[in-house]
């Protein structure tokens, strides 16, 4: 990326998300983006095993039930659901799913996968950051049709779509039921698949995760970068050195250290993005 290397001051993958979409004329993604972060969650790329901070990279791998815009609003365009409605009693939510989403292994995403993912998230062994909210709200999840889901709430809940989006954590992210049950949870965690614009190519726990672009993604088309590597680099001085030498293209940096980088003509992004 040369002189066009970028850095953000804190949570910065909203910048990456904003650059995933390209024009339909590009035949294939190109190049590599290396991101150095002090930490990136539990580093287990499975929705019900990852904490909220991990959604910064998990959003590249998975599709959430309810999509969001770049400014943090719910959207029918970027998630699995094209529409959602609450019944007059406030206890029943119906979600209609789009029928053109496939997982990285080619299997179609259906209401069965959404039901499976929500129930995995509500299981006692789940460790996601906001599962307490789901457990307090959801009574049952029912598949009405292949692309229609009905969720019964324990009490009137206006915020259920919000909690099943990717705006807070990983709770709304969808994993494939058939594949997960076939290989088992342990094997799935080692080689997870979702339906996002990137798939997991390689990872080393506590060190890095390497993502590879998916061609012709259902939402964004062709991602900009062929590969994205996210490295865990706890020491800020090391991250800054990596940026200056070109070993990293994007880093997180404290407010105190940002002026020196600005003086060297690096682009600084102060992120208030709700995508993270």
Automatic annotation (TrEMBL):
InterPro entries: SBP_5, SBP_5_dom. The keyword Transmembrane does not apply. Residues 1-27 form the signal peptide. It holds the Pfam family SBP_bac_5. GO terms for molecular function: peptide transmembrane transporter activity. Residues 79-263 form the Solute-binding protein family domain. Belongs to the bacterial solute-binding protein 5 family. PANTHER family: OLIGOPEPTIDE-BINDING PROTEIN APPA, PERIPLASMIC BINDING COMPONENT OF ABC TRANSPORTER. This is Solute-binding protein family 5 domain-containing protein. It comes from Entotheonella factor. The lineage of its organism: Bacteria, Pseudomonadati, Nitrospinota/Tectimicrobiota group, Candidatus Tectimicrobiota, Candidatus Entotheonellia.
């Amino acid at each position: 990326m040369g002189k066009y290397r970028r850095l953000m001051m804190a949570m910065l993958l909203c910048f990456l998300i904003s650059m995933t979409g390209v024009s339909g004329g590009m035949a294939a993604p190109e190049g590599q983006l290396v991101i150095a972060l002090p930490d990136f969650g539990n580093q287990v790329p499975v929705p019900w095993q990852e904490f909220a901070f991990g959604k910064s990279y998990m959003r590249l791998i998975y599709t959430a039930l309810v999509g969001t815009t770049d400014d943090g609003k719910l959207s029918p365009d970027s998630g699995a659901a094209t529409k959602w409605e609450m019944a007059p009693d406030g206890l029943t939510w119906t979600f209609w799913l789009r029928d053109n989403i496939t997982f990285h292994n080619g299997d179609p995403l259906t209401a069965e996968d959404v039901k499976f993912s929500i129930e995995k998230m509500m299981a006692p062994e789940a460790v996601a950051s906001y599962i307490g909210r789901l457990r307090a709200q959801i009574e049952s999840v029912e598949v009405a049709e292949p692309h229609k889901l009905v969720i019964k709430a324990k009490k009137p809940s206006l915020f259920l779509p919000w909690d099943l989006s990717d705006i807070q954590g990983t709770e709304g992210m969808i994993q494939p039921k058939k594949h997960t049950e076939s290989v088992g949870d342990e094997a799935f965690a080692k080689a997870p698949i979702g339906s996002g614009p990137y798939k997991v190519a390689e990872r080393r726990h506590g060190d890095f995760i390497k993502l590879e672009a998916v061609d012709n993604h259902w939402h964004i088309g062709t991602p900009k970068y062929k590969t994205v590597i996210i490295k865990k680099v706890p020491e800020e001085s090391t991250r800054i050195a990596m940026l200056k030498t070109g070993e990293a293209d994007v880093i997180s940096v404290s407010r105190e250290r940002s002026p020196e980088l600005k003086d060297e003509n690096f682009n600084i992004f102060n992120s208030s993005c709700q995508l993270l």
